[in-house]
Specification:
This is HAMP domain-containing protein. This protein is mostly helical. About 85% of the residues lie in helices and about 0% in strands. The longest helix has about 80 residues.
Length: about 300
């Protein structure tokens, strides 16, 4: 036989822990999204920066104005610094970083540009430079797509975990309310029905297999009250003592009944809970049945 109070507090504790877990996951997802957005933004800036460098080099090669290439070298070095900062992110796997270092050779482009500036290059080197820039542009685009795909995958995994935790909360709340209904509401409804039809409780009241301790004490109190009332009616004399015994029994039982009504009212008034309309109706039945029993006891006094 378990305690209704412990069941309610245990349900509140578990649901509270799950909600805190969901909040932590939400915060982590927000931070992760912000970090990935920053990385994607850096990658897009690097792609745009390289596109401007490539355009400037192409125009210089077409016009054969080699001295203009001198202004491109600082931009290439700046782009290299941006790629280095991008590689320092802990969210990017090591294999992607190694692939970026292996396939994007900005130092080689700088060497080729310097040769062309000093007139040491020829048409083959110009073509080689254009092919290198085209390959680097392709690798940067692939790198950007890989980062975006990885970001979506990790954020989606976080969302799946959050959805699973929400489903667990709903399942736990439904299980608790179902157990509360079977082991609390059903015995009270039986007691209320028997009191309305027979005016008293039978000795062999069916509590159910897992009735809570509070409900058991209430029913036993009602049985004791009913038995005491019959004894008082059969006996003559000692009216003050019998009346005091009856009042004491009623008060003790009413205190326990009020505790059950308060627990049910606490669940019904909780606006942050995920109770359905049917579950709220079940809680209202507990409250109404308890009030009905309380009214019956007041009539006895």
């Amino acid at each position: 036989m378990y305690s209704l109070r412990k069941l309610v507090w245990a349900a509140y504790g578990v649901v509270g822990c799950l909600l805190a877990f969901i909040i932590l996951l939400g915060v982590r997802q927000y931070v992760l999204s912000d970090q990935y957005n920053s990385i994607i933004s850096q990658s897009e800036k690097a792609i745009f920066h390289f596109a401007t460098i490539r355009e400037a080099i192409t125009e210089s090669l077409i016009d054969e104005r080699w001295q203009r290439l001198e202004s491109v070298i600082p931009e290439i070095e700046k782009l290299n610094s941006e790629l280095v900062r991008l590689q320092e992110s802990t969210l990017i796997p090591s294999e992607f970083k190694l692939a970026l270092v292996d396939k994007i050779d900005l130092a080689g482009i700088i060497i080729t540009v310097r040769r062309l500036m000093h007139g040491e290059g020829d048409i083959r080197q110009s073509k080689s430079l254009q092919e290198q820039m085209r390959a680097i542009a392709d690798h940067l685009l692939q790198y950007d797509r890989i980062i975006g795909s990885q970001a979506r995958g990790r954020i989606l995994n976080f969302q799946m975990v959050i959805i699973g935790a929400l489903g667990l909360i709903i399942s736990l709340a439904s299980f608790s309310l179902n157990k509360l209904y079977k082991n609390t509401v059903v015995p009270l409804l039986k007691v209320a029905t028997q009191l309305q039809t027979a005016g008293k409780l039978a000795e062999d009241v069916d509590y159910g297999p897992d009735v809570s301790r509070e409900i058991y004490e209430v029913i036993e109190g009602v049985k004791s009250l009913s038995s005491g009332s019959n004894t008082i009616q059969r006996e003559d004399g000692n009216g003050g003592l019998e009346q005091a015994l009856l009042a004491e029994t009623v008060n003790e039982t009413a205190n326990r009944l009020n505790g059950i009504i308060n627990y049910a009212q606490l669940l019904a008034d909780d606006e942050s809970s995920t109770l359905t309309e049917q579950e709220r109706q079940l809680l209202q039945k507990i409250i109404d049945s308890g009030n009905s029993i309380a009214v019956t006891w007041k009539k006895v006094l």
